[in-house]
């Protein structure tokens, strides 16, 4: 229960900082500012809650950890449920705050949802979105498994993971808004509905595939210093 609570709060922090920066401050801080906010959210959650649950905050990360042999299937399911609920509550909190502005409308302003195709950011194709989300998640989870494994410098995991997520956002915000995290995508999409909900499958499938590949590669010793 303690680990589930930590995952819930940590994912809430991720969505509140990251999605909140896009919805409430996006026009002021731009894509670079949003990227930094997502990275800082990971740093905050990792150092604040990582000692309790490892601060996965992401079903794709938990899947990678599971397939790397570092957690049980039952624990994986508990983490995923907590992460999804944390993301939903985080998105709801941002929505409530955003509605306090007179000219805000979720249909036109959105809620930091992920997407692709014409009308969304750079208008990248579904294929481009699939490749980006899969590759970026693979790299993200590979870094996480590496910096939390044996032989990694102590005390720097949270910073390395946060900076990696920042870098991923600097590359891909214009492509998909950057998910690499099914929970982060589910939260806003449930409130926005429409296209965001119709495209949600990609932001569940691609990150899970990327996370799974990272976990398998790590367990096989291809990306692990332990093997």
UniProtKB/TrEMBL annotation:
The subcellular localization recorded is: Cell membrane
According to the record, the signal peptide region is none
Its family?
Belongs to the MIP/aquaporin (TC 1.A.8) family.
UniProt GO cellular component terms:
plasma membrane
Keywords (A to Z) from UniProt: Cell membrane, Membrane, Transmembrane, Transmembrane helix, Transport
| UniProt protein name | Aquaporin
Predominant localisation class: membrane
MF term (GO), any: water channel activity
Task: Give membrane topology per the record.
Answer: Multi-pass membrane protein
- Pfam families, per database record: MIP
Which residue windows are coiled coil?
A: none
């Amino acid at each position: 229960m303690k680990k589930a609570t930590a995952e819930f709060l940590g994912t809430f922090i991720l969505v509140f900082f990251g999605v909140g920066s896009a919805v409430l401050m996006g026009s002021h801080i731009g894509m670079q500012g949003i990227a930094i906010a997502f990275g800082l959210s990971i740093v905050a959650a990792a150092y604040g809650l990582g000692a309790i649950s490892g601060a996965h905050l992401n079903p794709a990360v938990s899947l990678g950890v599971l397939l790397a042999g570092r957690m049980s299937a039952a624990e994986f399911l508990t983490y995923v449920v907590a992460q999804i609920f944390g993301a939903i509550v985080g998105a709801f909190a941002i929505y409530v705050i955003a509605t306090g502005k007179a000219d805000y409308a979720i249909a036109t302003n959105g809620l930091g949802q992920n997407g692709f195709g014409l009308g969304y950011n750079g208008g990248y194709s579904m294929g481009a979105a699939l490749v980006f989300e899969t590759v970026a998640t693979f790299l993200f989870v590979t870094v996480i498994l590496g910096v939390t494994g044996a032989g990694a410098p102590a005390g720097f995991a949270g910073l390395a993971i946060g900076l990696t997520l920042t870098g991923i956002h600097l590359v891909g915000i214009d492509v998909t808004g950057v998910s690499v995290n099914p929970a982060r995508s589910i939260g806003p999409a449930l409130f926005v509905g429409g296209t965001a909900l119709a495209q949600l499958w990609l932001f569940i499938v691609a990150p899970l595939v990327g996370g799974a590949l990272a976990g398998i590669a790590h367990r096989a010793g291809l990306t692990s210093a332990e093997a």
